[in-house]
Specification:
26 strands, 9% helix, 4 helices, 34% strand, 6-stranded antiparallel β-sheet, mainly beta
């Protein structure tokens, strides 16, 4: 698992507690444009994967000694073959401004450099509109610099590729947000205005600076539901304020967020789609998908090994990626020689469950002896897939195509003994309602 900052809609202000003028940029972080008809919700499109994340298979105990010997041998052979095919590149990419940068000046160029290699592709794309920013590559291929002007209050996704002297490729990615017209960025709001999300999606406001007067700030933000549910805010810390009802949002309802200050008002609305609750049983190694109260699918899975068990608890899908790069070194999982325990460049059909790096994703390196039979990962939940994720018939592809941002994934019967923090990703629902209400600054 890896600690990574989740990307959210930008909230900007000029003055006052929240600000005199409010503006919103598009929500970034998903490389899947969902469409109607299959319950996948609506989110903006982006084709590039995010910065390196972490999750990969690891050996685990099977239920019998005979199974252990057979499965371990099979899995080891697969891991060895995968490791040989996934030898890490010596090239190292650096992106400036760095991943997650906010309040970026529009006159400041985006610069991508590489050491021990050459750049083969760089794109800087506005997440909401898909417009690319022009740029030039140096003659020696070691640097790229944007030449086109960035727009204000806009979220951009930077995607780059490079190869080392042996032709081994590496990717580098970042999401940045430019300064507001008032040049005073103070926070992020999610979900995106006009989006359709799952029943578990809380309203989250991340402030760029610590908030001293929580009551005043919270009073300027009103959240209501057309379903008539009481919505209460909860401060996780001086920077993050979330809103949710006692139980999941009612399917088909509309949530309205009103931000008011100094006589200026900004309204954001989003719709709640169908209800989909998926339960992963780490003991039986099966995931049951329930939509609108009816079981529609049971999928064999492989979760965290005994050494790296998956969190138990209620989690919410916060990001979706057709492919994502996962590397063990990002979380300190390395071999004795310092090489990463795993380095998988294109993990298919990946969906984030926690900020600390728990994903539910496709697994093409595991054999049929894994899914539904043995837990092998470093904490994520793996579903059978094919390399590149090109088949629409795999369990991982089905779940990806039938899931939306805000869907709930419950994990139970894992050997993990730690308590999943409600503020780790969108895990708000793990906090009892009485405790949630006590964290409100307005009573």
């Amino acid at each position: 698992m890896i600690t990574a900052r989740k990307r959210r809609t930008g909230l900007m202000a000029t003055a006052g507690v929240i600000g005199g003028a409010l503006a919103l940029t598009a929500l970034g972080g998903t490389s899947h444009a969902a469409t109607g008809g299959n319950g996948t919700g609506t989110q903006p499109t982006s084709q590039a994967p995010t910065p390196t994340q972490s999750s990969a298979p690891a050996p685990a105990k099977a239920q019998t000694q005979a199974q252990t010997q057979t499965q371990t041998q099979t899995q080891t052979q697969g891991d060895q073959a995968s490791a040989a095919a996934q030898a890490p590149s010596d090239a190292r990419i650096k992106i400036t401004p760095g991943p997650g940068s906010n309040n970026v000046g529009v006159d400041r160029p985006v610069v991508v450099t590489v050491s021990n290699g050459k750049l083969t592709k760089v794109t800087v794309t506005a997440v909401a509109s898909g417009t690319e920013v022009a740029g030039t590559l140096s003659a020696d291929g070691t640097s790229w610099k944007s030449t086109g002007r960035l727009e204000r209050a806009t979220k951009y996704q930077v995607a780059s590729e490079a190869v080392d002297a042996q032709g081994r490729s590496v990717t580098g990615n970042a999401t940045i947000t430019t300064v507001s017209p008032a040049n005073n960025f103070i926070g992020h709001l999610s979900p995106e205005n006009g989006s359709t999300v799952g029943v578990g999606m809380p309203v989250t406001v991340d402030f760029g600076k610590a908030v001293a007067d929580r009551a005043a700030v919270q009073s300027a933000i009103q959240v209501s539901s057309s379903g008539g549910q009481q919505v209460v805010g909860h401060w996780f810390n001086d920077h993050r304020l979330d809103f949710r009802p006692q139980n999941y949002w009612k399917p088909g309802s509309t949530v309205t967020v009103t931000l008011s200050s100094s006589g200026v008002q900004k309204t954001v609305t989003f719709k709640i789609g169908r209800s989909q609750i998926s339960t992963v049983d780490a003991k039986t190694k099966q995931m049951t998908v329930v939509r609108d109260g009816k079981k529609i699918k049971t999928i064999p899975i492989s979760s965290g090994s005994a050494e790296h068990p998956t969190y138990n608890g209620r989690m919410v899908i916060s990001e979706k990626f057709r492919q994502i790069h996962m590397n063990g070194a990002t979380v300190g999982l390395t071999e004795k020689d310092g090489k990463p325990s795993y380095d998988i460049k294109a993990v298919p059909h990946a969906m984030r469950l926690t900020d600390s790096g728990t994903f539910i994703h496709g697994n093409y390196w595991g054999t049929d002896a894994v899914f539904g039979k043995v837990n092998t990962s470093h904490g994520c939940v793996g579903l059978k897939d094919v390399r590149g994720g090109g088949s629409s018939r795999t369990p991982a592809a089905w779940f990806f195509d039938n899931s939306m941002i805000g869907d709930v994934v419950i994990i139970k019967n894992s050997q993990d003994k730690t308590k999943l923090a409600p503020g780790n990703g969108l895990s708000d629902w793990n906090m009892p309602w009485s405790e949630w209400v006590s964290g409100s600054a307005t009573g």
